[in-house]
Amino acid sequence: ISASNVNVVYNNNAKLVVTLKDEFGNPIEGAEVTVVLNGATKNIKTNDKGQATYAISSTLVPKTYAAEISFAGDDNYVKSASSAKVVMKKATPKLTAKAKTFKVKTKTKKYTVILKTNKGKALSKAKLTLKVKGKTYKATTNSKGKATFKITKLTKKGKFTATIKYNGDKCYNKLTKNVKITVKK
Length: 185
Prior knowledge:
The protein has no helices and 16 strands. By secondary structure, the protein is mainly beta.
């Protein structure tokens, strides 16, 4: 019994393919193999190529897992066991932030960005920071992935570079993006 290691990015589907062969390298069809991954046990049957496919959850928390694979044996074959590594990697989210122009007289300059998953869905409750001209502002994304910063310290004309940061979490990588903010009369 054998299986290749699997590398997958969070939020993506992947399969662990188990192969069961006899001592001469011939596939064993219709055999039940057991896969234990992250505490979940599943029995699957081999096809005519001696292969059984185990669907890996796309929402496993990113880390390295050991998949324990076994064949209990039957009237014709002795038991067999193996293991494979399943490496779930963090995903990289997508940050949409565009250049923006404000008027000097606007006291609170509202600047909105959008943070989405690697699959394009809104990433809610994510904490972001925006740093411009030495001041840092904080915002949290809503259910639509939008975060609005209330910039109060840009009171003079000029062109500024704003740095937006997302520090990541257990499933997503950190991310930084620079944008131009212009303040004019």
